[in-house]
């Protein structure tokens, strides 16, 4: 991947202003013709310089101003259209130098402010100040310099980026003048450096601290030679020569005693180095680093960097790719300081210190949505589960946080390669098999049916610990992994909040990979709700549905509905209700749901999990003669493997027949 440059301008517009007779027009014409013009018009036409002849490879428009031909209103418009203003004075004319502070600088400031009166910020005039370059022309006429006087002005006006003395007649420093003007736009000083304090701005420090943390791969608060070389390669596509590296360390050690520790660069040394670059006029070096890490001209993370466009066809979903998983594993292991396989709250906080905030709450979200250890700390498995959940339900947020954590830099690629877009669901339905590894199950049921306990039980080893527990947090998603025919799949349970029994469900609450309709088997009035839900939303859909009766450790009650659950399921060709209890701690329900999602509308793949199906098969096909007795504890495994083998054989025969017809 080429080096990313945030906020790369398409052009630079330079406006020249100043008193009459200071040589503004002559400077422009001398630059274009490379010779001093004998006849100078009152104002030069707008000049466009192609990108291939400019030092920064950016097209440049140069605009002249003449008080004789243009009004003050026209000047205000031009000032606001310009990216940088060059205030020209004559070095042999003290009045033109004095007018910089008495007239031109206040005029430029007021023009920018009045054009932005709709800005609600109280200090908008400070934020929107136009970069300025002071240009002393006619240096060929004197034998002294006015730079000292100009430097005093620069201290009072932070928007002044640089100053230069030149001569339109001898062409001295003409190219440099326009280079400084370009540089003031492309690599401005004011966002990075405070002249009065001789120090980096707070925003610049904050950005560089984040960059330091990302490059500190071993998290020891130092940048060793390997990390510095990696930083150099990522930012400038070239290695750092050992001799140059030693010289850099020597300069830091000389100026900042604690800038070097154990032959490695500390954060103080890293910040000093960039401060030194700016003081020596090498702003472009610091800007190259900042833009490589996604910052724009306002030192904010660029939206194009955080949210690269991702095309997701209708019916497709998003998952973490192998590269995405490997990066997140590396980040986890990097911040698991004690190596206990889990992130403590402090380690979790440090991990996201390069981000504006953590993407989720550690106390109220992550402990309730993914697997944790006994202390409630997220494990590596839970860590990957939580990212998998966010990638499915909010992939844009995943892209943002991968960028914040430095994926683009460490992987030297866009974070788009961390995302896998699955094929469309209609193709899965046609093939009766899903290619996905992450499935979404909506758990729907009336209040008090135990659906929240069913969801939370998916996360812990001993579900009986949840008995009698009141769930107060509003976390709606729970995610864990299950094995489906030897393959690891992630199942996301979404607890659909039911407000009133008659409230309609929204499309996003209905659409999923598999639906789990839950009723309380001990409550005679519980089943009616999910029966109505099924008839209204799922009877005509292609979404697999599982009916689950919870609290089966209590006495099962006859339901006050025109059909009992078993009769209902038989009528609508659903599998019989699955009886579930936290007390029993049996988790085959979750594997059943994942299997139904992985093989939509293909019940032959589900048969391993349903005893009633195998009993019917045994009765109709005389399985006893094959030694498959109902008392045999391995009956269901044998039968399931037999069905799977028969299915595979059927596909092979069908393929052979199709091939024969084709020939």
Give a written overview of the molecule.
Helices cover 42% and strands 14% of the residues. The chain is α/β, with parallel strands linked by helices. Helix 9 crosses helix 10. The chain is elongated, with a radius of gyration of 35 Å. The protein starts with 11 loop residues before the first strand and ends with a helix. Mean pLDDT is 86; it is low at 1-7, 115-127 and 611-633.
Provide a concise account of the structure shown.
This protein has 663 residues and is an alpha/beta fold. It has 26 helices and 20 strands.
List keywords for this structure.
663 residues, alpha/beta, six-stranded mixed beta sheet, 26 helices, 20 strands, 42% helix, 14% strand, disordered N terminus
Tell me the helix content.
40-55%
Overall radius of gyration:
35 Å
Summed up, the helix count is 26
Q: Give, in spatial order, the strands making up the sheet with the most strands.
A: 2-3-1-4-5-6
- Quote the distance from N terminus to C terminus: 47 Å
Number of strands: 20
Q: How large a portion of the residues is in β-strands, by DSSP E?
A: 5-15%
Q: Give the overall silhouette.
A: elongated
Poorly predicted ranges (pLDDT <50, ≥5 residues)? Answer: 1-7, 115-127, 611-633
Provide the residue-averaged pLDDT. Answer: 86
Class from helix and strand fractions: alpha/beta
How many strands, which pairing sense, and closed or not: the largest β-sheet?
6 strands, mixed
């Amino acid at each position: 991947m080429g080096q990313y440059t945030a906020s790369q301008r398409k052009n630079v517009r330079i406006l020249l202003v100043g008193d009459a007779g200071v040589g503004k027009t002559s400077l422009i014409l001398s630059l274009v013709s490379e010779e001093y013009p004998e006849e100078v018009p009152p104002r030069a036409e707008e000049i466009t310089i192609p990108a291939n002849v400019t030092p920064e490879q950016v097209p440049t428009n140069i605009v002249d101003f003449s008080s004789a031909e243009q009004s003050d209103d026209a000047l205000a418009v031009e000032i606001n259209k310009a990216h940088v203003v060059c205030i020209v004075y004559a070095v042999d004319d003290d009045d033109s130098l004095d007018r910089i502070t008495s007239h031109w600088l206040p005029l430029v400031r007021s023009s920018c402010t009045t054009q932005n009166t709709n800005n609600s910020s109280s200090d908008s005039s400070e934020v929107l100040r136009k970069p300025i370059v002071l240009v002393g022309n006619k240096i060929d006429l004197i034998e002294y310099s006015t730079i000292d006087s100009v430097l005093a002005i620069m201290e009072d006006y932070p928007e002044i980026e640089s100053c230069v003395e030149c001569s339109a007649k001898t062409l001295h420093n003409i190219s440099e003048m326009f280079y400084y003007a370009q540089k003031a736009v492309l690599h401005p000083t004011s966002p990075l450096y405070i002249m009065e304090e001789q120090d980096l701005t707070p925003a610049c420090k904050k950005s560089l601290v984040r960059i330091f943390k990302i490059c500190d791969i071993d998290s020891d608060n130092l940048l060793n030679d390997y990390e510095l070389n990696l930083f150099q390669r990522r930012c400038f596509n070239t290695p750092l020569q050992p001799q140059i590296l030693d010289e850099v360390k020597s300069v830091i050690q000389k100026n900042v005693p604690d800038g070097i520790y154990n032959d490695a660069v500390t954060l103080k040394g890293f910040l000093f180095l960039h401060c030194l670059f700016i003081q020596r006029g090498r702003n472009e070096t610091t800007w190259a680093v900042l833009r490589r890490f996604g910052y724009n001209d306002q030192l904010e993370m660029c939206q194009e960097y955080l949210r690269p466009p991702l095309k997701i066809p209708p019916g497709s979903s998003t998952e973490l790719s192998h590269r995405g998983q490997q990066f997140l594993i590396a980040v986890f292991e990097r911040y698991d300081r004690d190596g206990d396989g889990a992130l403590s709250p402090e380690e979790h906080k440090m991990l996201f210190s390069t981000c504006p905030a953590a993407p989720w709450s550690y106390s109220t979200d992550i402990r309730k949505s993914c697997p944790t250890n006994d202390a409630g700390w997220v494990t590596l498995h839970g860590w990957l589960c939580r990212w998998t959940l966010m990638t499915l339900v909010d992939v844009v947020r995943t892209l943002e946080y991968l960028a914040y954590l430095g994926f683009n830099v460490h992987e030297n690629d866009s974070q788009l390669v961390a995302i896998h877009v699955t094929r469309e669901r209609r193709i899965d339905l046609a093939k009766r098999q899903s290619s996905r590894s992450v499935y979404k199950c909506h758990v729907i049921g009336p209040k008090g049916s135990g659906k929240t306990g069913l969801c939370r039980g998916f996360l812990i080893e001993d579900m009986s610990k949840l008995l009698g527990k009141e769930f107060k947090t509003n976390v709606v998603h729970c995610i864990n992994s299950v094995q489906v025919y030897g393959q690891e799949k992630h199942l996301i349970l979404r607890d659909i909040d039911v407000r009133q029994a008659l409230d309609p469900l929204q499309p996003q609450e209905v659409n999923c990979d598999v639906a789990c309709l839950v009723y309380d088997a001990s409550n005679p009035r519980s089943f009616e709700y999910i029966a109505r839900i099924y008839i209204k939303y799922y009877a005509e859909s292609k979404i697999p549905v599982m009916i689950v009766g919870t609290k089966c450790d209590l006495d099962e009650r006859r339901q006050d509905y025109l059909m009992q659950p078993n009769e209902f399921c038989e009528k609508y060709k659903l599998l019989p209700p699955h009886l579930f209890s936290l007390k029993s701690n049996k988790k085959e329900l979750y594997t059943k749901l994942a299997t139904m999602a992985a093989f939509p509308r293909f019940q032959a793949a589900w048969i391993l999990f349903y005893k009633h199906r195998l009993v019917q098969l045994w009765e109709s096909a005389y399985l006893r003669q094959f030694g498959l007795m109902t008392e045999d504890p391995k009956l269901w495994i044998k039968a399931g493997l037999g069905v799977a083998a028969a299915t595979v054989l059927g596909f092979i025969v069908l393929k052979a027949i199709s091939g024969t017809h084709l020939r």
